[in-house]
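Final report, Chapter 2: Outcomes

The project's central promise was a pipeline that accepts a single protein chain and returns its three-dimensional structure in a standardized token representation, suitable for archiving and comparison. That pipeline is now operational. To close this chapter, we reproduce one record exactly as it appears in the project archive, with the input sequence first and the structure output second.
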Amino acid sequence: MSKEKKEELKREKLSRRDFLKNAGIMTAGTAVGAGFLLSGCSQGTQGETAKPQAAEAKPWLPEKWDKETDVVVVGTGCGLAAAIEAKNAGSDVIVLEKNDWAGGLYKTAGGHAILGGTRIQKEGGIQDSLEDWFEDEMKASGYRGVPELIRTYVERGPELIEWMESMGFKWYATVGNSSPEVHRANRSHYPAANPGVYDAKANNPMSFGLAWTTVWEKKLQEMGVPILFKHRMRKVYREPGGPVLGISVETPEGMIAIKARKGVILCTGTWTDNYRMAQAWDPRVVGPDCFGDGGTPADGTLFVDSAGDGHFAAAEIGAGFSDMSFTSYIYLFYGSRSYWGWEPPDFKTAAYYADGKGISRPAAFFERVILVKNDGSRYINEIEGAKKADPAKGEAGGLNENPEWPYTAKYLSLPQPRNVWAIADSDSAAALKWPIEDLKNPNPKKGLMFDPACIAIADSIPELAEKMGIPVAELEKTINRYNGFVDAGKDEDFGKTTLFKIAKPPFYGLKASLIRHTQRNGIRVNTKSQVIEQADQLLDTKAKQLMEAFPLTRKKSFLISMPQVS
């Protein structure tokens, strides 16, 4: 039997669970990016361009390969980090980016790197352990997190400090804790100033993603790894039952096919900006007052059109998914429809970063406003929006961002269009120090990004109701009843204990917008970020093997643990 025939028979015997077996590079974008690897296998000798194949013989192949490399990385958020490690591992690498700049949505990320057991913690006198961090992460996820993946993230987290420093990143010396209800020790790491390497502001969360991606891009330039801009992946080529072979890419000059001899790494970012995907998994989080976090609705979003590219492509070739019904963090903003924005767009500094998020929402906000739905009635004890997790009860996380907890769950249970408004009078607006002039002259591109469609100001309740699109008589009835509760000192409808009248004009209405922020799930992978097929999930084989075989202390090679950002 000829050598070629033996190789063909060998390929035919590949089981479905051998999919991606050869992969050795991981990127896990734990907050902003979907990072997973599809393992490649060459057709013919290295460097040889495959000849056109008859469609009836091998329909899974393109007519020809226009480019060829060892590893193709799709996306330049966490994909930049994956490309660095792929190159360090000795592979030829090509990086693709659908936009005309490197960094994608990751570049705009604020937040912090959540890391435990680090050198910086120890230098600051902070005591922490990997086991404590693991337990906190599991609790924070509501125990929905896949244990072996979270263990991998925790296991490799401390190494990230030195890895980033090796490329020119500098860490701020002080470690904070932005989520004390989740993390028992300070674990929030920030960038320090480093002129000439990146222009991000020191210890400024708003420039976190900018600092990271700038460092990675410069490193790839030094390594000679090409980044091809305006290259959008449209399809993954895979031999049926066998390995991934390459991808189809849309470019300004037309469609091309790129062959990957060793693997394809998909780092295509968030899918929660894609309303079609969000609707498929949870119809409650899409609608006229629901938005993703990838851009400014007033301008048209930057990322919605192509969000989910990697997930769609992987699903088409049999990839499994993980807990997609728990779509994302859910935030309710008042007075705005945007999570963030840069006006003008700026990829050098954070000077023009607009924080979005509407009016500030401390506990006092929920004490002083009432929340009414589209028929003019209250629907909840407003103070539910101010509640934090109680560690004594085994709770963790921000209760007002989890779709399963009362404040958010009640909003999601309302019929659409929801048309929910927070209402306060001038005394409460003054006590809460609302920026009145900004509310009177809303600018959806600047600062808190107040949106004219989400703000109503009036000298009477009937006028306010008309501006909000709520029945006048019902709103007057609701406010009169509530003011009666204030006089009596008892909220007979919902038991709210801190009560303030809505009596002094002008009156303010701030419309609620639901923001889907950061997917909580995605393509199911193992601890090397190799994709697990849907068939394997159904057979329930690999997941069990991984859980039994991955202790906390086990080391994995070529592994990058990406931080959480917000």
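Archive annotation: The two ends are 58 Å apart (CA to CA).
This record, like all others produced under the grant, will remain available to the consortium after the project formally closes.
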